[in-house]
Design goal:
627 residues; mainly beta; Immunoglobulin-like; 9-stranded mixed sheet; 7-stranded mixed sheet; 8% helix; 35% strand; binds 2-acetamido-2-deoxy-beta-D-glucopyranose; binds copper (II) ion; oxidoreductase; Cu_oxidase_CS; Laccase; signal; metal-binding
């Protein structure tokens, strides 16, 4: 019988004292490696595992991943929080530049690109790999950091890529090396966490091959969907704070292609009749919730963020910012179109956030953004299909449909949940923020950070600047739970916060959604409604307008972790807090080298600032929280 204490399982035991094994050495087997080719992008040569492990992932068994000669498997039911196969190390070089870019027919003069592309460089890797990513900043007037959205960063808080929290920004001409292990699988995106920078283009997909909860024949590389703004996002953010009105996006861009005032193009891809396609969607928007559908095609949803779920069938999917879904579309339309072509629709939700400018009227009905052509279709004519009768709303997929494959049973919390109720909203008292204008916040004070002073270099502190919005989670039992409630708007009316829906993202953890309600939290009645039995889990969840979100996670990852709204304008305005998890254990957990490196990088940043006052003067140019 195989036992999980086997030496090459990835083991993490974090109760009381920490024993963390970041990169277990390989079993003493032969050196040759095993190779699993997969075809998501042409440049990728496949997965590499130690000799003795064989691929068990084929089109009839997508749930299996690798198997050894004793019959042990890593598969869709393996608890990836505890057991991870031993992959390979991949090194990737990224360069950030500022240059004009045209995604929708109209030039965006100050686009900021990763390796000259938008979406930026696709990083493709495999479950259990270690990534080394060298990020070179050639942006003339901005620092940068890169955040690996949803990646656990277990024991590597300093690699989370949040300036003023885990590091100083990387300055112009400098390179920062990120190194971390991929303990999860699925797809995500990576993006800048420096002010509004990702909204200008510093965002790209990250695909980690692993098992899936249903069968498919062909896989597509991830599709990054986003709103697109022609002017600089830094200018647009100025409008968020000072008006007039709210910042508007110009178009919807599907994997880099969109239409604006008659220019640009639709996203295009092909289906072969009868095949099942694994399609991976990422909402990389700035301010924008969307519904995705393909006319006449049903599909199955198989994952929420990094969490594989029991497949369910639908015709449309509601994707909040930062969220990801994998879907399997069978190329068998319910009604065959006359020319073999079908509209792919990406509709933004009015009332959820600000509207679009410049969308061609013909595209407005259900927002036509892409064309799927069957292999046998001909001609250059557009599809003639009509939209499914769907209604769009500013909310997550139905809670009860999101059933995780690997079950989590949530036990009673270590904290009193009523001590940890946070009000997310727009603070109606301008004196609580900077510049005498209204700000978004989730603690009493809108977040405002000093790029030169990351929290990670302040972990000896007994108190923090209120604008750092630090929340102390000093709960020592990493095997058990802490709960948090996030209320949209005021619960106790102290600050008169305005209620709306927000996509809430937590770093360093997947969280269980104990409740997602559109009514106000009640300290007496709500806890009894919490779902503790394999609730949905992910790393971004919609907080319903006027309602609340109750989440649970295990404090097994000492570090400083951001929790924020993923509407970039709201995070920039201050809707964010940082959880200091097991403060006195962070230094030992991530290791002393992390701190000396962070200090060196801060020196470089400070020196660059001193030497380039004409390029960047933060007393003048910092208008947002910094994240
Ligand atoms: C899948 O993996 C789990 C644990 O990793 C193992 O217990 C189970 O037997 C595997 N399933 C199959 C069909 O081998
Ligand atoms: C970032 O760069 C933009 C130009 O693309 C500039 O307008 C803005 O002031 C810079 N902001 C910061 C904080 O570096
Ligand atoms: C989406 O864009 C990425 C990055 O440019 C590219 O590698 C990938 O192939 C595209 N995916 C699809 C499905 O078109
Ligand atoms: C992305 O998420 C935002 C905010 O939740 C939403 O407004 C927007 O419509 C989403 N975009 C898509 C294409 O689903
Ligand atoms: C999406 O499709 C499902 C299944 O076809 C349907 O029940 C549901 O009402 C649709 N959702 C919306 C928001 O229209
Ligand atoms: C808890 O959530 C899961 C996943 O959505 C669902 O299957 C289950 O029915 C829920 N249980 C209760 C008691 O609501
Ligand atoms: C930001 O932090 C640095 C380093 O701690 C400090 O020298 C500087 O005075 C701070 N700036 C402001 C505006 O507080
Ligand atoms: C940490 O504590 C010192 C000393 O009290 C204080 O000056 C500093 O501002 C604190 N750091 C933060 C990030 O609040
Ligand atoms: Cu928000």
């Amino acid at each position: 019988m195989f036992s999980f204490s086997h030496s090459f399982a990835y083991a993490v035991a974090l109760s009381g004292s920490i024993s963390f094994i970041s990169a277990l050495s390989l079993p003493t087997r032969d050196q040759p490696t095993h190779f699993i080719p997969r075809q998501a992008s042409p440049g990728f040569s496949g997965c590499v595992y130690p000799s003795g492990w064989t691929n068990c992932n084929d089109k009839d068994n997508r749930g299996c991943w690798v198997r050894d000669d004793k019959g042990f498997e890593y598969n869709i039911t393996t608890d990836y929080e505890d057991f991870v196969p031993q992959g390979t190390t991949r090194t990737i070089d990224l360069t950030l530049t500022e240059e004009p870019y045209t995604a929708d027919g109209t030039v965006k003069p100050l686009a900021k690109l990763i390796n000259g592309k938008y979406p930026g460089e696709l990083i493709e890797a495999c479950w259990g790999d270690t990534l080394i990513v060298n990020v070179k900043n050639e942006l003339p007037t901005n620092g940068t950091t890169i955040h690996w959205h949803g990646i656990r960063q277990l024991g590597t808080n300093q690699m989370d890529g949040v300036n003023a929290v885990t590091q100083c920004p990387t300055s112009e001409g400098d390179t920062f090396q990120y190194k971390f292990k991929l303990t999860q699988y699925g797809h995500t995106w990576y993006h800048s966490h420096y002010s509004s920078q990702y909204s200008d283009g510093v965002a790209a997909p990250l695909l980690i091959h692993g098992p899936n909860s249903d069968q498919w024949d062909e896989e597509w590389a991830p599709i990054m969907v986003s709103d697109w703004i022609h002017k600089s996002a830094f200018e647009a953010f100025h409008v968020e704070l000072f008006g007039p009105g709210l910042p508007m996006a110009d178009s919807i861009v599907v994997n880099g292609t969109g239409r604006y005032n008659g220019g640009g193009d639709y996203y295009r891809n092909k289906f072969e009749a009868g095949k099942k396609y694994l399609i991976r969607i990422i909402n990389a928007s700035t301010g924008f919730h969307f519904h995705f559908s393909i006319d006449n095609h049903k599909f199955k949803v198989i994952s929420t963020d990094f969490v594989p779920i029991e497949p369910y069938e639908t015709r449309n999917i509601s994707v909040g910012i930062g969220q990801r879904y994998s879907i399997i579309v069978e190329a068998t339309p319910e009604t065959v179109s006359s020319n073999g072509k079908y509209w792919m629709r990406t509709e933004y939700v009015g009332g959820c956030n600000a509207a679009l400018t410049g969308v061609p009227p013909s595209d407005q009905d259900g927002q036509r953004t892409g064309i799927i052509s069957y292999a046998d279709s001909t001609g250059t004519d557009n599809p003639t299909t009509t939209r499914w009768p769907i209604t769009v709303g500013c909310k997550d997929e139905p809670y009860e449909k999101l059933i995780p494959k690997v079950k989590w049973e949530v036990s009673a919390p270590q904290n009193d949940v009523n001590d940890d109720v946070f009000e997310a909203g727009q603070d109606q008292d301008p004196s609580h923020g900077r510049f005498g204008v209204k700000h978004w916040s989730i603690t009493d004070t809108p977040m405002w950070l000093n790029f030169s002073n990351p929290t990670l270099l302040n972990i000896g502190n007994t108190s923090f600047d209120k604008e750092y919005a630090v929340v102390d989670y000093n709960f020592k039992d990493g095997d058990n739970w802490v709960y948090m409630v996030i209320q949209s708007g005021s619960l106790d009316s102290g600050l008169n916060k305005l209620a709306t829906a927000h996509p809430i993202h937590l770093h360093g953890h997947d969280f269980a959604i104990l409740a997602q309600s559109s009514t106000k939290y009640s300290r007496t009645a709500s806890p009894a409604t919490f779902n503790l039995s394999n609730p949905p889990r992910r790393d971004v969840a919609m907080l319903p307008a006027g309602g609340f979100l109750a989440i649970a996670f295990k404090p097994d990852n000492p570090g400083v972790w951001l929790l924020h709204c993923h509407i970039a304008w709201h995070a920039g305005s201050g809707l964010a807090l940082q959880i200091i998890e097991r403060q006195d254990e962070i230094a030992g957990f991530i290791g002393a080298a992390a701190f000396t490196e962070a200090q060196d990088d801060c020196k470089k940043w400070d020196t660059w600032l001193e030497e380039n006052p004409d390029k960047l003067d933060l007393s003048r140019d910092q208008e947002d929280s910094g994240i």
